Amino acid sequence: MGTRPNRECAGKRLPPEEKQLEDIPMIETRFRGMNSGILLSGMDLDNHLEIKRMIMDFEQKASRFIPDNQLAFVNHSPLDVPIYLDPVLADLLDQSLKLARKSDHHVHPFLGKEMMANGYTESFHEQYQPVFSGRTSTHFAGEPIERLSKRWIIKKRDFLFDFGGFGKGYIIDKGIRHLKQKDVNHFLINAGGDVKLLGTHEVGIEHPVLMGEDMIRLSITDQALVTSGKNYRRWTRDHQHYHHILDGRTGEPAFNGVLQASVIAHSAMEAETAAKLLCILPFEEAKALLYRNFPRIAYFVYFENDQIAIGGDSRLYKRMEVAK
Fold it and tell me: How far apart are CA 313 and CA 105, in angstroms?
C-alpha cells in the first residue's frame, strides 16, 4: 500500500534513452502474494514468470500465515534445542538482525506472539475481523536466540518469528539482484508498497487519507521506495485502536502522531526498517537515529495533523511534483 508506478508526469523532459524505453510497451504482471497485491513491470515475459515464482516460493517458506511451512516448523520448535534453518530463512534472519540492531531493536523479527495478541492473527483483507490471542508483554533485553552457526539456532525464549516487511523487502531485493546479474536494466517490483527498481521510473506516493490519489510524484533510479502506514491494516476493540506496526521494545502498537512514512534507500529492507522507525519513534528521535545509522535515505512523512515532513538525502530522487 502507498507506493506505485506513475505513467505520466506533466512537463517532464526525458533523456533520449528514457524516451526510447517509454516507446517500448512494458509487460505488467499482477498477482497476490505475501499478503499484498504485487505488480511486476518490465520487458521479457520469462523474467516476469521467474520473479513471480521466486516470490511465491519464498512466501511458502517464510510467511507466518501459512501453516506447516518451514517458518512454522521453526516457530513451533521447543526451547533450548538446536533448530536447523533453511538456507533462505538463515539468510533472511542474518539480514533482518543487522537492520534490527541498527534500529536499536525497535524493529525486529521476533514479534509474532505480540502481533497475534494485538489481533493480527491471519492474512489481512478488507473484511478483516481480528481475533485477539491474549495479552503478552515484550521487553527484549537482547535477541532471544543463540546462534550456533549460520544454519543452526537455539531459541532461548518463547517467541514466534514474524518477518513481515523484512520478508517483502528481502525477496524483492533478491529478485532485482537476480535480474541485474542477467543484464536486465529496466524492471519494477511493487509488493504492496515496497518497490525496488532497475533503471529510472516515475513513482507515486499514495495519499494516506485520499487513498487512491498520489500525494507526491518522483523519479528514482536503481533505488527502493517503501511506504509504511497506520491507515490500512488497522482495527478496533472496545473503542481501542490497533494496527500492525508494533514497537519492538514494547510489543505494543506505536502511536507517535505519524500516519504514513515513505523512505527511499538502496535496498528495500533498509527502506522498510527506516519507514517503520518513522512510524514508531517520536519524530525527532527517529530523525536522530536515522541520521546516525541510516544516513543514505530520503523520507516523506505524513502526520495525523495533515502536516508533511520531507528530509534526508535529496540526491536519491528527482522531485517531480506534489500532486494536486
Answer: 24
CA atoms within 13 A on the CB side of 132: 12
Q: C-alpha angle 61/66/70, rounded to 5°?
A: 35
Locate cell 533523456: which residue? 15
* 3 state DSSP class of 237: strand
Compute the distance between CA of residue 132 and CA of residue 118 in angstroms, rounded to an integer. 6
Residues facing residue 40 across a β-bridge: 29, 189
Q: Are 269 and 171 in contact (CB under 8 A)?
A: no
The mean pLDDT values, 10 residues at a time, for the chain of 324 residues are: 47 41 77 92 95 97 92 96 97 98 96 80 57 60 90 95 95 98 96 94 92 90 94 61 79 90 98 97 98 97 95 89 65
SS (H, E, C) 93-138: HHHHHHHHHHCCCCCCCCCHHHHHHCCCCCCCCCCCCCCCCCCCCC
E-strand spans in the chain? 3-5, 27-33, 36-42, 82-84, 145-147, 152-155, 187-191, 194-198, 200-206, 214-221, 224-229, 234-237, 240-243, 258-265, 298-303, 308-312, 318-322
CA atoms of 178 and 42, how far apart (whole Å)? 14
Q: What angle do CA 194, 266, 251 make, to 5 degrees?
A: 55
Termini Cα distance of the chain: 20
Query: How far from chain centre, in Å, is Cα 229?
Result: 11
Q: How far apart are CA 246 and CA 116, in angstroms?
A: 11
For 30-53, the DSSP string reads EEEETTEEEEEEES-HHHHHHHHH
Neighbours of 3 (CB within 10 A): 23
